[in-house]
Amino acid sequence: MLQYQIPLLYLAGGCYLAAVLGYLGNLRLASRRLAGIALALVACGWLAQSGSLLLRWQAAGFLPVTNLFSTQFFFSWSLALTYLYFDLRYRIGAAGLFVMFVNLLLIASILPRDPAIPALIPSLDTPLFTLHIIFSFTGYAMFTMAFSIGVLYLWQQARPTRQLPDLALLRKLNEEAVFLGFCLFSACMLFGAIWAYIAWGYYFSWNIKGVWSFIVWLFYAGMCHAKFVRRWQGRGYAILSILGFAVVLFTYLGIGLLLESNHPLD
């Protein structure tokens, strides 16, 4: 059954590509039908990707997120799920263009990579690791959604268009994405600390990945308070969302690629 993981991943990528084109058409033509088709394509892509994830999980016997291919895979899956939540709740239509384009880049970056599942090291063989990873990447996905909404807020402010949600709704979406991301990432930090104590005898170590994860948490904790400060509302909050995503990217990719860390996933 594992041989179907890559065809399903290509199917998901094709659906996401078609969805991006659909949202682009919706942005130009203001067609509700196109927006509905694009949403259905995102849902189909997510289901195909879920099928691929389940096959990998069944074959491995654990949540397969132990190398760059599998973490980007799970990041993409989480981002598509996050977008579906927001679109089904708020019907944001063409606003899905940017976030699904980001997701398409994630999928395109992993297709050439080796999909082999590395063996699980003993310290990761615990449900706490699974919970840590799930909350980490769903939190990252929410922060990516906030980044996308922040970009759209600035675009809508500079070049208003009726095809995008109004500034009030974009501000609400941005604040909700940041708050939910912060809650999920807080759970990630909590389960990670408990897992570290059981595995190594301490809740926190000063390895660079741990420090930068704490910086991410502090940044978004500050953002949860900044929405109540007038000068940071709206445009300021959108800019903070973009800056926060840069911190997330460095923590997720930059440390593993540019620096040395003793974190188990680096």
UniProtKB/TrEMBL annotation:
<keyword id="KW-0472">Membrane</keyword>
<feature type="transmembrane region" description="Helical">
    <location>
        <begin position="37"/>
        <end position="57"/>
    </location>
</feature>
<protein>
    <recommendedName>
        <fullName>Cytochrome c assembly protein domain-containing protein</fullName>
    </recommendedName>
</protein>
<keyword id="KW-0812">Transmembrane</keyword>
<dbReference type="InterPro" id="IPR045062">
    <property type="entry name" value="Cyt_c_biogenesis_CcsA/CcmC"/>
</dbReference>
<dbReference type="InterPro" id="IPR002541">
    <property type="entry name" value="Cyt_c_assembly"/>
</dbReference>
<feature type="transmembrane region" description="Helical">
    <location>
        <begin position="177"/>
        <end position="198"/>
    </location>
</feature>
<keyword id="KW-1133">Transmembrane helix</keyword>
<feature type="transmembrane region" description="Helical">
    <location>
        <begin position="6"/>
        <end position="25"/>
    </location>
</feature>
<dbReference type="Pfam" id="PF01578">
    <property type="entry name" value="Cytochrom_C_asm"/>
</dbReference>
<feature type="domain" description="Cytochrome c assembly protein">
    <location>
        <begin position="67"/>
        <end position="260"/>
    </location>
</feature>
<dbReference type="GO" id="GO:0020037">
    <property type="term" value="F:heme binding"/>
</dbReference>
<feature type="transmembrane region" description="Helical">
    <location>
        <begin position="210"/>
        <end position="229"/>
    </location>
</feature>
<feature type="transmembrane region" description="Helical">
    <location>
        <begin position="69"/>
        <end position="86"/>
    </location>
</feature>
<feature type="transmembrane region" description="Helical">
    <location>
        <begin position="93"/>
        <end position="111"/>
    </location>
</feature>
<feature type="transmembrane region" description="Helical">
    <location>
        <begin position="131"/>
        <end position="156"/>
    </location>
</feature>
<feature type="transmembrane region" description="Helical">
    <location>
        <begin position="236"/>
        <end position="259"/>
    </location>
</feature>
<dbReference type="GO" id="GO:0017004">
    <property type="term" value="P:cytochrome complex assembly"/>
</dbReference>
<keyword id="KW-0201">Cytochrome c-type biogenesis</keyword>
<dbReference type="GO" id="GO:0005886">
    <property type="term" value="C:plasma membrane"/>
</dbReference>
